[in-house]
Amino acid sequence: MLKHRAISIITYFAICLCIFLLIQKPLFLFYNWAQGTAAMSASDWAAVYYNGFAIDLASAGYLTALPLLLIWASLLLPRFPVLTCLKVYNLVIAICLALITTADAALYEFWEFKLDATVFMYIGDPKNAFASVSAGYVLLRLLAVIGLAALYYWLLMLPRRSWRQTGMPPKWYWSSLAMLALGGLTFCAIRGTRIWPNTPSRVFYSRNAYLNHAALNPMFNLIYTSTKQDKFDKEFNFFTEEERARDYEGLFPTSGATADTLIHNQRPNVLLIVMEGFGSLFIKSLGGMDSVAPYMSRLVDESIAFTNCYCSSFRTDRGIVSVISGYLGQPTTSIMRYTHKVNTLPGLPKTLKTAGYDTQILYASDITFFGMSEYFFATGHDKLISQDDFPARQRSTKWGVPDHEAAAWLYDDIQQRHKAGGRPWYTTFLTISSHTPFDVPYHRLEDEKLNSFAYTDEAIGQFIDRLRQSPAWDNLLVVITADHGFNHRPVASPDFPFIPFLLTGGAANEPRRIDTFCSQTDIAATILGQMGLPHDDFPFSRDITADTYRYPFAFNTFNNGFNLRDSTGYTVYDNVAGKATYGADERREHIGKVILQTLYGDLSAR
């Protein structure tokens, strides 16, 4: 009986390993054929399997650990219901593995990183998490989960004949010795045979991020990243506190005298337009595509255009915080999910309120998604306008009210405010239509993604043209930017973070181009600096026009990595791999690490 039980444990481990090697990994590769698999050679396939094998072994070890203990208990306790326990365990594991396999393959197209603890941020709000996909898409993935779960359960139950109690149990010391030996081998598989334990970085062997991601086991990455959550002061401790403080000095000046005046009225009405995913790659006058965004391309020439502005992160929840609070995007979490920390953040509308402004935000979708409503209130928006404030007939897309309808509402609101007079006002307007599933009431380009950006371009462009012809224009400062770039290019590429940053309106000075390197986080301090208002409570926002802005650079984060661009070049650094994957440079890498350590220290203290 001991021999059969030992063989069943080895068989179980082998089955788990085969699930990862023969089902999970091929499904990921074939599902993401257009994302990178199509360009893989035979040697790339071999390298993916070879470099990921140690982590696949570790993952199989994790799954085998509890069955080993249960079988050991059944050898010591003849009446122990081992078969029932393993049936329940295998059912749970089969469902979890099916969910992980399906989610990892399906989400990669949108996230461009492996499944990790980020997914838990969205589980609490499934309605909004699936708002951008069709019912058919959800149904197909659900059927895939059910089918995989059934297959996994059948495979995991193959050794069940050996789990039944037959014959006399062996002496406790023989069974314990055998189980300890198997337990030791399982522990070695989990930890690895090297001096340091297994981590996701072990599979990172290539400069091609997709190959590294294909090699990485999603279950292991999910477990590993889940254990690293909320311990911000323990992450990214590259230097001693003295070294960090010394080298951080001067990187983010929060005060200084304005050396370049961009507006001629220090108390204009302010409209901040944040365009969903609208990277500069769509704007011809910023070096982008020719035919997607003619209105924005024209606006660049008609505005004060910051032509070297880069977003702070790769997700909307972090990009919004970067624009409104001037707070750097985090590569492993999102501050928006922590209510107690959000309440400590500065906010552009919060500061303007102290100067006598009325404040509001227009987000014509579900404003409760991901805790955004809490963030908007915390940062000083007195009034929140969402899809619920529009007639049901106007909520015609998956995300809510299409951009041209929302812009029409905003135009009328601005005209009413102008006629009423009174206090100056500030409005944040977040567009929604250039987002998956790209269902827009517009058909100009064949590519549905590009067509959705063309639609938003026309909706916002025509909105600006109407405003320009109205009397409200004269005392209006319009700030136009994006929450992040678009993954038409990889999020870790040098071009992804490039976004527009424009100042226009009757309160803005003559059109010009400012080529200074800057970040999305600098928008808040720059606007406040132009208005003569303090911004020293924005720790990562710099007034680009101030005399203290002496080291122009842009810092951007992606999933557990960062980009840093300055006049000397551009570096992409992957924290998991522990090295630069593009533009290796000791100085830029050092500055990026100093900023990241400072960011997480600040995040921990909030």
Give a brief description:
The chain is an alpha/beta fold and about 600 residues long.
Protein model, in words:
By secondary structure, this protein is of the alpha/beta class. Helix content is 45%, strand content 11%. It contains 19 helices and 15 strands. The protein has an eight-stranded mixed beta sheet, sandwiched between helices. Helix 1 runs antiparallel to helix 2, helix 2 packs parallel to helix 8 and helix 3 packs antiparallel against helix 6. The longest helix is centred in the first third of the chain and has 35 residues.
Largest β sheet strand count, sense and barrel closure: 8 strands, mixed
Query: What's the count of strands?
Result: 15
**Secondary structure category:** alpha/beta
Strand ordering within the main sheet: 5-4-6-1-7-9-2-10
Shape: elongated
Question: What gyration radius follows from the Cα positions, in whole Å?
Answer: 27 Å
Strand content: 5-15%
Please tell me the overall pLDDT: 89
Poorly predicted runs are none
Distance between the termini: 58 Å
Oligomer: single chain
The helix fraction, in percent, is 40-55%
Supply the number of helical segments: 19
